[in-house]
Write a structure and sequence with these properties.
The chain is an all-beta fold and 155 residues long. 0% of the residues lie in helices and 23% in strands. The strands form three sheets. Strands 2-4-5-7-9-10 form a six-stranded parallel β-sheet, with no helix packed on it. The termini are far apart.
Length: 155
């Protein structure tokens, strides 16, 4: 079984509908872009493998929901680090309470712009080291008063 040490992995502008969980790609400061495809869900590969990811770009797909992740999932790896997460221009409307966003404790840049997000309740800023958060062009109507107060790093 071959293991490939990859630094940059781009599969943009294809018809990709699924990215199968695989442990053959590892890397340090790994960057990946699966932008402009037809993905409908967040690929499990990105939370079930021991890799330190610099960025994931899933923009311009058809992701509608960031589902809960089972805390008892034995495949889930808590050592994963991600710094840049781009989900702009999807159809994202629902972010569940225990979604993948709560797993990336080192996240500094989060782009959820140009989606259909209405509720910010499950975007927990205090779980990140966020410096950049883009929520532009969504359907947000209310921002609770403590939404930004818990972030010491947001610029």
């Amino acid at each position: 079984n071959n293991v490939f040490h990859v630094i940059k992995f781009y599969i943009n502008f294809n018809q990709l509908i699924y990215f199968e969980n695989s442990s053959v790609i590892t890397g340090y400061e790994f960057e990946t872009s699966l932008a402009s495809n037809n993905l409908k869900e967040f690929p499990p590969f990105f939370y079930k493998n021991k890799i330190i990811m610099k960025s994931i770009d899933l923009s311009q797909n058809n992701i509608e929901i960031l589902n809960n992740i089972d805390n008892n999932d034995t495949h889930y790896d808590q050592s994963i680090r991600l710094f840049y997460f781009i989900l702009k221009k999807n159809n994202l409307k629902i972010i569940e309470q225990n979604s993948i966003l709560t797993r990336y404790k080192f996240l500094t840049h989060l782009d959820l712009s140009e989606n259909k997000i209405e509720d910010l309740e499950n975007i927990l800023i205090d779980t990140f080291r966020l410096e950049y958060l883009n929520l532009s062009h969504n359907n947000i109507s209310i921002i609770r008063k403590d939404f930004l107060s818990s972030s010491n790093t947001l610029k």
